[in-house]
Recover the amino acids of this structure.
């Protein structure tokens, strides 16, 4: 029988699309924000062959607490503790200074659970693919370059998680002269 998306997964997509509805990415085309979270979940399903539904759902929800009014309590009530805990692991603490958040992403990467590491790798892969072809609005070339350097430091602390994703990330770092 052909596998079909579960109702839970569809509800998750609908919820993310609703919560991110007024947000745009930073690329010049101002792509709808939800495209990014769909990309991250699709990278996991198609390129990393992940079948763990909670991971695919958490990928869809990975920026919803960081960037919208959604709370962890909302996610737990709607999608359960497992999905909520995965999203918690990949959510930055927005009460901290940006530089500190960036530092903590590097410092905390290795302590993350293997399932949350998958989401972090796919998130970086999608952002870096975008940065290869676009410079976000208002960014200098130097800032774009520093993002690759910073992302590599995060990825280096997530290694040993998924060969396919790590090979694809390394190909990007090689193209940028970082490997
Ligand atoms: P930002 O956090 O400001 O921007 C990058 C984030 O924006 C991504 O992680 C992604 O987060 C989101 N995003 C939205 N649209 C896009 C897109 N089209 N392509 C890629 N990402 C997108 O990063 P910073 O530039 O602040 O930090 C990166 C590094 O650069 C750090 O090491 C920082 O110190 C350094 N730097 C920062 C400067 C600054 O002015 N802030 C200046 C020079 C260097 P998500 O997946 O969560 O949506
Ligand atoms: Zn993201």
């Amino acid at each position: 029988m052909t596998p079909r998306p579960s109702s839970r997964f569809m509800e998750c997509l609908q919820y993310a699309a609703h919560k991110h509805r007024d947000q745009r990415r930073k690329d010049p085309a101002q792509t709808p924000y939800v495209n990014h979270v769909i990309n991250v979940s699709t990278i996991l399903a198609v390129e990393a062959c992940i079948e763990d539904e909670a991971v695919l759902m958490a990928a869809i929800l990975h920026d919803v607490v960081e960037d919208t009014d959604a709370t962890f309590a909302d996610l737990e009530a709607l999608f359960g503790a497992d999905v909520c805990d995965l999203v918690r692991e990949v959510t930055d603490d927005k009460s901290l200074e940006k530089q500190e958040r960036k530092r903590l992403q590097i410092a905390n990467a290795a302590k993350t659970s293997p399932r949350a590491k998958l989401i972090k790798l796919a998130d970086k892969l999608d952002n870096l693919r975008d940065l290869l072809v676009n410079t976000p609005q208002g960014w200098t070339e130097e800032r774009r370059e520093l993002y690759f350097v910073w992302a590599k430091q995060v990825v280096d602390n997530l290694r040993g998680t998924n060969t396919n994703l790590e090979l694809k990330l390394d190909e990007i770092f090689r193209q940028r002269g970082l490997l």
Summary: The pocket of NDP (ligand 1) is lined by residues 25-27, 36, 63, 98, 102, 123, 127, 130-131, 134, 136, 143, 146-147, 150 (CB under 6 Å).
